[in-house]
Amino acid sequence: MLTRDERGARLGGAPLQDLLESGGVETPAYVYDLDAIEAEARELAAGFDGAPHLVAYAVKASSAGPIVRALAAVGCGADVVSGGELAVALGCGVDASRVLFSGVAKQAGEIDRAIGAGILALQMESVEEIARIDARAAAMGRRARVSLRINPGIEADTHRHVATGHDEAKFGIARGDLEAAWAALARARHLDLVGIGGHVGSQLTQTDDYLAAAEVLLGIAAARHRAAPLSFVDFGGGFGIDYGGAAPRPLARPADFARAAVRLVAGSELAGLRIVVEPGRSLVAAHGVLCAGVIGSKRGHAADEERRWLMIDAGMNDLIRPALYAAWHRVEPLEGPVSPEAPLWRVVGPVCESSDDFGAHPFASPPARVVIRDAGAYGFTMASEYNGRALPAEVFVRAGKVVSVNVPRRVDAWVAERVGIGARG
User: Which residues of the chain have pLDDT under 70?
Assistant: First the structure.
């Protein structure tokens, strides 16, 4: 997590300016604290207090090898949503028996790779998908372990783009379609149903909606378990973090969700069944930052009100969450102190879109560089080369020292690719 002293922002106990210099990277650049990410995973696992469980890290939050390897080393499995993410998880040492494959539009080749690898379960998200996966398993002469992702019909208190547990969402099987799902499973000859799961949404800051959905899933799982024993029940992830906004109640920690889930299962007829959770953001977001250089500033007046803009070299192509979700990230000077009472400057990027806007933040004067906090999740993994801009660099830190660096292809490589499409000679 980012801290500050008289020199400015620190991550992993070291000044960010030193880490950027040691990594030999220019801005924009992400910097991650691997020790803190591991500590988050350990704290969450401790919340299960010895109950059978699997923390399946949602690789979509950050697919960087150093992060996936660090989480695998402390016992995490993986929740993946593509063949690429499956390959990353396995390549980083996650045991196949600890991998779940989710997603509403799995391609035939992805299904085949998952079955061939012997993963814990393919999560089926529609009645129609049951026959598809059964056919792929039959063609391979294999049996496939599967689970049903069920929509509990809960409208979570979160942004509509990340609410996934209601019947209007593209994800999962509606409760009204369960009879059809059971019938399709009865016809399948190459599937082993090992789990029941669901996911109510992301950035959950209280346990209420999560537990309401979990109770629905437990009821469905219990009925199925009586007929054919299950191996696990999967309550999904979505544990939120504090992005720095005002909260009406104290934020629930990931371990609070774990403890609540354990109590719920212990009081049911499924006591002792393995609990699966799929955290992503809560493990990595607070322990990664995006560093950016200040290109310039601009002042203007309208209706007797002074306007101030700070233009930085990181844009919505580097961190799309503010543009996509109206998400809030604190932006602070990289060097020197934060001045909460200073005038507000609207921090904007170089992309040719009005939504390339990181909000208004206090600065006593335009700094040379800024740091965007809590950017470790859904940052680099959602980045693009829009407007012909290079992907940002990544720096990975342990014990205050840089241990690895990722510098993606630069703009000249992008230009060569785009120019070369269809070129002759």
Answer: 155-168, 246-248, 302-304, 424-425
Non-local CB neighbours of 361 within 8 Å, separated by 6+ positions: 330, 331, 332, 344, 345, 347
Domain containing 299 equals 3-31+286-420
Beta strand 29-33 pairing with 3-5: unpaired
Instruction: Give, in degrees to the nearest 5, the angle at Cα 330 between 326 and 336.
Output: 155
Answer whether residue 364 is part of any domain.
yes
* Cα–Cα distance, 138 to 131 (Å, whole number): 10
**Whole-angstrom Cα distance, residue 200 to residue 28?**
34
Q: Is residue 425 part of a domain?
A: no
**Rounded Cα–Cα distance for residues 239 and 48 (Å):** 15
Dihedrals phi, psi of 161, to nearest 5 degrees: -70, -20
Q: Tell me: the pLDDT tens digits for 22-56? A: 999 999 999 999 999 999 999 999 999 999 999 99
Query: Is the same domain home to 114 and 204?
Result: yes
- Give the total residue count for the chain: 425
Look up the pTM and report it: 0.94
Catalytic residues: 352
Sequence-distant (6+) residues with CB within 8 A of 231 are: 194, 195, 273, 274
pLDDT tens column, 218-266: 999 999 999 999 999 999 999 999 998 766 678 999 999 999 999 999 9
Q: Is the backbone peptide bond immediately before 28 cis, with ω within 30 degrees of 0?
A: yes
